[in-house]
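INFO  loader      accepted 1 record
INFO  loader      residues=145
INFO  predictor   begin
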Amino acid sequence: MTLQTASEVISFAKKLEEDCAKFYENLAQRYTNDREALLSFANENRRNIVLIERAYYGVITDAIEGCFSFQINANKYMFETKLAENASYNAALNKAVEMEEKIIKFYSDAAEQSKSLMADIPRTFAMIAKKRNIRSSKLKSLQRL
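INFO  predictor   done
INFO  writer      dumping tokens
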């Protein structure tokens, strides 16, 4: 599935954020040792949705929506959020890191492709990618040997 319009890319970004938030909420229920950290990730995902919407609705015009075209293959950035019933905490964190890497790649690619669109959207995408890099490092630090 190729995303071509700004609204398609924004909708996809919101879906990634929501799916990811639900994943962290499920992890927080399942693995209570790092519950607060995992719930903070879910809350941050929902704040990202607000940032994305603000950036988009703040600059959207018919000219942008009609004349600017992304070439984003959504399939490259999709991820599975189901965990095996007996998955270890480390396995769950590995899955989270893989998910974060896909989302970081999506935001980085979308930011690059939207540079000529307006400053707000690529800046927001780049900022979220940077925050997710930090999150990925935090997830790696939660892993037990």
